[in-house]
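Consider the following assembly input.
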Amino acid sequence: MSAVMESPDKLAVADAGPLVRPLAPPRVADAVSEPAWVRRTLIAVALLFLTLFLFVPLVAVFVQALAKGLDVYWAALTEADAVSALKLTLIAAGISVPLNLVFGVAAAWAIAKFDFRGKNILLTLIDLPFSVSPVIAGLIYLLIFGLQGWWGQWLRDHDLKIVFAVPGIVLATVFVTFPFIARELIPLMQAQGQEQEEAARVLGASGWQILWRVTLPNVKWALLYGVILCNARAMGEFGAVSVVSGHIRGQTNTLPLHIEILYNDYQFAAAFAVASLLAGLALVTLVLKYIVERRAKASHKEARHEH
Amino acid sequence: MSTRALLLRRHSVLPGFNLALGFTLLYLCFIVLIPLSAVFLKTFTVSWGTFLDTVTSPRVVASYRLTFGASLLAALVNAVFGLLVAWVLVRYRFPGKRLVDALVDLPFALPTAVAGIALTTLYASNGWIGKLLPFKVSYTPLGVFVALTFIGLPFVVRTVQPVLEDLQRELEEAAATLGASRLQTFAYVIFPALMPALLTGFALAFARALGEYGSVIFIAGNMPMVSEITSLLIITKLEQYDYAGATGIAVVMLVTAFLLLLMMNLIQAWARRRQGR
């Protein structure tokens, strides 16, 4: 009995709801968002995680670098071994980035502008160095050019040195940075299609003219982005270079290897001083990446607007 | 002209196919394929029994266990927190958000050796973070996990973030209209849509962790049987001029990495099919 009596009452109350609070705004946003305390908790947990694993290590590099004062910091950076390590790092990056840039453009031109058999296999092969451990990337050149390797005896007879010398370091760096620029260019050039290039062709442009005047200007931000990432990795590579370097101070040490030697010698302030150079490079990389991404987005919007 | 006719599926008016593809293949062969094949050819020079003995010796197996276990744990932690970070970055507004977003890529940009010495110093028993913890992190297997979590962090965030940005809010509104609670909407509408990206990010972080070397060797302590990762074991063998042994272990790592790559491609194909439906 009572249940029957109750239900009309409840209905009436539910109906009266909006009438009682006529000024309450429609709360559509709440339906696809979370309560404020959930939002705040999630933000706090995410920031705590990032602080512990990202920000504190980054700050620590600079604090430790300056722990013993500016004099020690400056001495660590201007010491002869550090300068030669810096030079070698610049040489390795200076050779491997342009090589991989040319490769990236060629690969992207072939893959994005033409339709051919085996394209997916080629794409997978280009990505291959990403899934090879850096240590193995060094090992493979040791197996070929090392004394026990395929061409080891021949190289020794002709008094040529590749591993435990500069060429080996460059080769290992080229390997680990191999896909970076191609990976940035291929998806973008595939998305852009080939109408513009075909139009240029019809108007009488040669292949090189099309590349310089049409294709490359269209992908300049992605290209720059790829170069930035490639350079960061080239200058910071440790594992692969460590295997083929031979660790000869002043001759075959790059900056990351120099850091390892200083650290293992308990020269912590000096190790962190050199590390702060590379951390600074990383920060510059992130800033450039941020700018390039914004420019890319802006030019993307512009292109849409024109259409 | 013959390779062009042989390979091309469709006629194209654009020039440069032979040159571009030719250079691409040549460069790929010289830098990647021929050197990588050296690892496998080197393995063929030792007998099957010797190979098996090398790659299943107790010290090597202990290193697999550590590398695999720590990588898996780090990738799992990154999957959970990476999803959370991506969610917070896409859905919420807070001061300094753009800075945080840009800094997520730090592990990509920071050289591994720098990350290694920074984490070791922080998590050592007298370091800023290590001081606060009741247990040792640096120079233990736990240190390996910390380093691998650091280097794998951006993978999940950067694969999940764009998918979350493109997710249609209308679906969530529809779910809410149909009476779903926010948690139900997340579990049944949002999470399934993010699943392929999350799995891809997880697999990428895991694959990267398996081969990592630079950041780990500083913090691990590198005790044989306890905190020695597989990559380091390859270096140790090389320093003893045991090239065959080093190569054997490298083959095991390479095959594992290729299987992971194959798995990732399958996940992506599966995701594309699901989206196409």
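Chain A has 16 helices and no strands. Ask yourself how this observation constrains the way the partners meet.
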